[in-house]
Amino acid sequence: MMVNDDECIFCRIIRGELDSATVYEDESTLAFLDLRQSNEGHVLVVPRNHIEQIYDLDEDTASSLASTVCRVARAVRRVYAPEGLSIWQSNGPAAFQEVPHVHWHILPRYADDGLLVVYPRDLVGRARQEYSLQSLKSISGPLIEALEEDAE
Known about the structure:
Strands 1-2-3-5-4 form a 5-stranded antiparallel β-sheet, with helices on one face. The chain starts with 8 loop residues before the first helix and ends with a helix. It has helices at 9-14, 59-80, 133-151; strands spanning 22-25, 29-33, 43-47, 84-88, 104-109. 31% of the residues lie in helices and 16% in strands.
């Protein structure tokens, strides 16, 4: 059973109501060219079911998405021969998620293209923080506990 949202842009693309250029599809995922081509070959990968954020993905859908992302990434490399490749996924307004339907961006990258810098050199008023090993172990403790609880 397909679950979708009548107003969601990606659900409308999946239903064929909005124009898109599909590059790959299977029973649970769809990969299409982003209308905003920051670099030629920018592809979005989405689940066919309307799922707003990564936190709501079931294991089978997550696995299918990962497989499609890898397959499309290899095709982007073969076709565009980029110097690098960025793959990212955002959740919520603070992370700049623009469409509330979980999706991955596959973006061919070139030196000095000025796109998506993970650690900006100039963080206005903020220095990039380095952590000690002890600090990292302190931070990791609650994450390990949460993962163990999730596995139960």
